Amino acid sequence: MRKGARPPAVLIAAAICAVTIRANAQSPPLQELLDRTTAYVTEFFARLSNVVAEEHWVQEEGSSGRKRVLRSDFLLVTFPGLQGRMSFRDVFEVDGRSVRDASHQDRLLKLFVDPPQDAVRRAREIAEAGAWFNLVDIGTLSDPLITAGFLQTGFRPRFHFVRGGVEKSVGPDVRTVRFEEWQRPTVIKSGPDNDLPARGLIWVEERTGRIVKTQLKLGLTEIVTSYRWDDELQMTVPGEMRDSYPAPSARPGGISPRRNDFRGLATYSRFRRFDVRTTETIR
Questions:
Q1: Which of 74, 85, 129, 264 is 20 to 30 A away from residue 121, measured at CA?
Q2: Measured between alpha carbons, how far is 18 from 211 in angstroms, rounded to an integer?
Q3: What share of the chain is helix, strand, coil (3-state, %, to 5)?
Q4: CA dihedral sign, ordered 119, 45, 56, 234
Q5: Is residue 82 part of a domain?
Q6: Per-block mean pLDDT, blocks of 10 residues, the chain (283 long)
């Protein structure tokens, strides 16, 4: 082609087509991206089941400056004889002081040797007992895995999803996906009859569906989880969780609420898988 001449239209069309094909290969449609993420989450929870990590959770209460440091075993448990999984924390140290006596050392084992219904009840009791050590009353909501769970097959239809932009600061092909819960009653409630619709962002690796980061908002409450690679398990695991609970609004008549804003930073380490043998202890 001589200098200055325009390329034939067919070549322009071919070039545009090639660019489009490359773009589509790199950026899957929303439905395909969600399907990849659901497949990833299914495998992720299966591999993380019956794994315990050490959680180091620093809590701070607003302007008072009060702080508390909790160390806990954080588990994702699959109960024998039941479908589904349950994550919970078993607090063993508060501000450097041990709070788990010898009589409680075998309670994790009992989760597996007891009948399934008793195991679920016992797990909830352990989680609720641990919540008593929180600096303020925030219940058992703070869970680094809660948002990833929304991408499971049984939960995904409850949400609307909107594809966002690429976040290269997080990863070369990591895209944000915005979600908002539309179905009622909601998964999480603030009371027996008070729906608490979930919304937020998920950072997803387009090629694999791997979740890199999540943000969950429930009213003014926010829980952000960042994930990292673990060499011991050879998989991605929660690295840290940042949670914040703004102070309740003033009561009618201008009465100030009793507690201040709450902020927490939890980090996760020492991930290890445990085997359960009903005639022995957890290994």
A1: 264
A2: 29
A3: 25, 40, 35
A4: positive
A5: yes
A6: 50 41 64 98 92 95 90 82 75 92 63 65 83 90 94 96 94 95 93 89 97 96 97 95 81 46 95 63 42
Let me know: does 223 contact 147? Beta carbons within 8 Å. yes
pLDDT of residue 110: 66
Q: Which amino acid is at 179?
A: F
7-15 long-range contacts (CB < 8 A, ≥24 apart) are none
Asked if residues 189 and 200 have their Cβ atoms less than 8 Å apart, the reply is no
Burial 271-280 (b: 16+ CB within 10 A, else e): beeeebeeee
Using the structure block, give the residue that is written with the tokens 């082609």: 1
144 domain-assigned: yes
Residue for token digits 């290269």?
168
Instruction: Give the pLDDT confidence score for residue 165 in this predicted structure.
Output: 95
How many distinct structural domains can be found in the chain?
1
Residue that the structure tokens 């050490």 belong to: 54
Q: Which amino acid is at 266?
A: A
Closest alpha carbon to 205 in 162, 168, 156 = 168
Q: What is the pLDDT of residue 24?
A: 42
- Within a domain: residue 18? no
Torsion-angle region of residue 35: left (phi > 0), alpha (psi -120 to 50) or beta?
alpha
Spatial contact of 242 and 223, defined as CB atoms under 8 Å apart: yes
Q: What is the pLDDT, as a whole number, of residue 83?
A: 62
Q: Find the length of the chain.
A: 283
The CA distance from 150 to 162, in Å, is: 14
Alpha carbon separation from 242 to 3, 20, 103, 159, 252 (Å, rounded) = 60, 39, 32, 23, 31
CATH of the domain at 170: 2.50.20
Is residue 201 within 8 A of residue 180, CB to CB? The reply is no
Two tokens, residue 174: 């990591």
